[in-house]
Amino acid sequence: MQSVRIAGRDTRTIAKAAFERRHYVAASNMLRMYEHPFEMYRRYLTSMGEYPCTVRVSSPIGPIDLDLYTHDDVLTVNEIFCRVDYLADARDKVVVDFGSNIGISAAYFLSRGPDTFTYLFEPLPANIERLQHNLRPFEGRYALDGAAVGTEGGKVQFGWEPTGRYGGVGQPTGNYITVECRKTREVLEDVVGRHGQINILKIDIETMEEAVIGDIPSALARHIDKVYVEYKFAENPLAETHSLCQRGPIAQFFRR
Predict the structure, then answer these.
(1) Residues 114 and 195 in one domain
(2) Containing domain of residue 51, as a range?
(3) Which of 72, 121, 129, 142 would give a disulfide with 165, using CB separation of 3.0 to 4.6 Å?
(4) What pTM does this model have?
(5) Coil, helix or strand for 138?
(6) At what angle do helices 21-33 and 37-46 cross, to 10 degrees?
């Protein structure tokens, strides 16, 4: 049966989602997470609404305001704050975020408690400007590197598209900029050297996830408590050190 698209989404994807518990959890959480939940329901389901807009989200340290610029940003804030794709709490004090976009994931991590510090990597200039705006309440609690991450360092071609959500190294978007790329292993070694461990490593870098995970040696992985990757793995690439739970599109690794 041929699929059609509703509010920008494939009907087969919508039908499959109807049977997944995580979406019911997200819908329930929307009622308590948003100051105006029904407005967010409308934006999420219909793709309608003017942008930019500001959404107020509840958090353990109090309400925070996030500026959203597209319907895709609505999807992102819902996935992170309501669907809880990257579950964290106040015990997660050191976070590394590969692919920080406009700062929604960072705002989630930083709002779990007052002592969390995040290392953020985001190469797209438009996203960086929006990230810095969204993270104004958390100044001094994050380090931002305007670089991509990968298995090798140096200059790379970064494909971008207007929403800022789906770009990546080597992505065939038709729009390209040249950016610096940091070697994943060196980044993680530096953070572990500073803190002794990483509580959460989050990876959402469009097509590079599998290669980046595969480049983390076991000796280094042992210092990382949790890894969240937007990727579906056929086998556990961190089997020596972590268990794997595939939660929809998010692979969740937990140190044994």
Answers:
(1) yes
(2) 1-83
(3) 72
(4) 0.90
(5) helix
(6) 140
* Cβ atoms of residues 135 and 107 within 8 Å: yes
Among the three residues 50, 66, 83, which one is the final residue of a domain in this structure? 83
Q: Are strands 250-255 and 224-230 parallel, antiparallel or unpaired?
A: antiparallel
Q: How many CA atoms lie within 13 A of 190 on its CB side?
A: 9
* φ, ψ (nearest 5 deg) of residue 64: -130, 145
Same domain, 238 and 115: yes
Q: Token match 């598209």: residue?
A: 161
Same domain, 98 and 78: no
Boundary (domain end) residue, out of 52, 83, 114: 83
Token couple for 63: 């309400």
CA distance between the termini of the chain: 43
- If asked whether residues 116 and 235 sit together in one domain, one would say yes
Q: For 22-81, what is each residue's pLDDT tens digit?
A: 677 888 899 999 999 999 999 999 989 999 999 999 999 999 999 999 999 999 999 999
Would you state the structure tokens that stand for residue 162, as one six-digit string? 């207007």
Q: Taking a C-beta distance cutoff of 8 angstroms, is the pair 180, 123 a contact? A: yes
Helices (H), 100-143: 104-110, 125-134
